[in-house]
Model the fold of this input.
Amino acid sequence: MQTLLIILIVLAALAAVGALVRGIVIFLKTTEADLNGTGPNVSGLHQNKMMRMRIMFQALAIIFVILLLLLSRSG
Done:
């Protein structure tokens, strides 16, 4: 069970890094025309989506670490 949790922690961490990198790439592709428009732009919406995904993956990794610690403490 501990091995499975370690694998899940690594996968969640890699997913968080992937979402971070993708969000940075989307941010770097933002043009001045995107920023001058009225209302939310597509680039901004994609950036927010990637930020939410990163936070979700980080939360999953933290939950898995807590489960691993609880499991190792009781065993």
Observations:
- The radius of gyration is 17 Å.
